[in-house]
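Quick one: structure for this chain?
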Amino acid sequence: MKKLAFFVITLGLSLSSQAQIDFGSAPKSKILTELDKKQTTHSVESWELESTKGINKVNLVIEAVKYTSQDGSNEQKGIKMILIPEYINTDNELALSSKELVSYIDNSEYPEIIVVLNTMLNDYRKKEDNNSHGSMTYITEGNIKIGFVQTEQKEIAYLSILYSKAEVICEFSDIDDFLSELKNYIDVASKELYLPENVEKLRKAKKSNHEAKDVIINDI
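Got it. Here's what it folds into:
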C-alpha cells in the first residue's frame, strides 16, 4: 500500500492551461473546505487503496487521506476520489489532454454509504435472479455519484463527480464486482487498515473475503 505525504500552501494563486477543459468549481466536503482556505499551510497524508481504469477510458484512483491543520487543532479523515478523463484534442488528433477531477468522502459518511452499497448489491442481485431491469443512484455530500444501470441495452456500474459545469463518469462492466470492491475500500478506510500497524489485519480481512466468496461459489 503506497503512502503519500505532502504539504499544501494556499496563497490564492491560480494557474491555467489551454489543454485543460473547464469543469467549473469542485464540489465541497469538509476536507476540501479546509484545503481551500487561503494563506494557510495544510498537511495531507494519503494512502493509495486502488487505481483502475473504467471501460470508457476514465481512470479512477481511490486514496485514504488524513488532513491536519497547521497548528494541529483540526484533523479530518476521509477518502479521496480522483477521476482522470482522457479527451482527444480536435485540433490535433495525436494530442491527448487530461485533467484530474477530485472530490472527497468525509469519514462521517462511511456508515451511510456502506448501507447504500449493501442495498444496491441486494437490489442488483434480485434483478439478476428475476431477469428484470432498473437502476439506483446515490450522491454523497461531496457530489460523488455512485450507482448502476441495468437495461437490455447495457449493464454498467459507475462513479462520477458532479462539478458545477460538468459531470465526469467512470464506468465499469461488472456491477457486482465494482459495488463490492467499493464497499470493501470504504470498510478498509473506516477501520484504518491501510496504516502500517494494521497491515496484518488487512491481509487477514482480504483472506476472509476470498474465503467467503469461495463458500458462496461452492454453495451455488
